[in-house]
Amino acid sequence: MGRKWNNIKEKKASKDANTSRIYAKFGRELYVAAKQGDPDPETNQQLRMVIERAKTYSVPRTIIDRAIEKAKGGSEEIYDELRYEGFGPNGSMLIIDALTNNVNRTVAEVRAAFKKNGGNLGVSGSVSFMFDATAVFGVEEKSADEVLELLMEADLDVRDVIEEEDSVIVYAEPDQFHAVQEAFKEAGITDFTVAELTMLAQSEINLPEDAQLQFEKLIDALEDLEDVQQVYHNVDLGE
């Protein structure tokens, strides 16, 4: 698959270690998930999924509980879920997911980030056809064979199971997220190094050094935006 999921997570966590940005982004996502359905993660699968991902980024339980309580408390904050697609240097492709209470502000900021860093915002569908929605899990203290066996016992046929450093990474269809999670739970596995839905590039590209530096500046500019939740791309950054 060409993606070092644990390294990507660690890089993002390190980048945000001295700020509250990552907590604020998760707080917003948790609030929206709780607001759109039952604020109980036992009955709200979307909320449960966001909680699992937050845990892999070491988001404190107080942040999680606060966001859910805010939704329970009848807050009238409304966020739109937006997806932008665009192109970076040398044919690179990006998908940006955002949650915003001001659509005009968000699109202006995303467009400016592209323009200042050698890219341009595309139209809907211009990039997404080159990506696949994918559920990704990472578990430790299990071999790939052991993970395959427990998934087979749960009658789950996933896309791929690979070993990556000290973890086993499972790639599955997006609608298998909760079934895979339950299979691990039945096997006594409740902690994950990765647990999320992502947009996985069908193929990755390598950029020359100057273009890669520019591309990384583009990624940083987009991830720095308050409304941006996730940035997906097709560049092998050697992570």
Radius of gyration: 18 Å
Q: What number of structural domains do the residues give?
A: 3
Would you tell me which CATH topology of the largest domain applies? Alpha-Beta Plaits
Q: Sheet with the most strands?
A: 4 strands, antiparallel
CATH superfamily of the largest domain: YebC, transcriptional regulation domain
Low-confidence stretches: none
Terminal CA distance: 13 Å
Instruction: Please give the number of β-strands.
Output: 8
Task: Tell me what the CATH architecture of the largest domain is.
Answer: 2-Layer Sandwich
Strand order of the largest sheet: 3-1-2-8
Shape: globular
Q: Strand pairing plus helix content: what structural class?
A: alpha+beta
Order of helices and strands: HHHHEEHEEHEEHEHE
Mean pLDDT: 90
The share of residues in extended strands comes to 15-25%
Detailed description of the structure:
This protein is α+β, with helices and mostly antiparallel strands and 239 residues long. It has three domains: 5-72, Integrase, N-terminal zinc-binding domain (Arc Repressor Mutant, subunit A, Orthogonal Bundle); 80-127 and 203-233, 2-Layer Sandwich (Alpha-Beta Plaits), CATH 3.30.70; 130-201, YebC, transcriptional regulation domain (Alpha-Beta Plaits), CATH 3.30.70. The protein contains eight helices and eight strands. A four-stranded antiparallel β-sheet has the order 3-1-2-8. It has a four-stranded antiparallel β-sheet with strand order 5-6-4-7, with helices on both faces. α2 (21-36) packs parallel to α4 (61-72). The chain is globular.
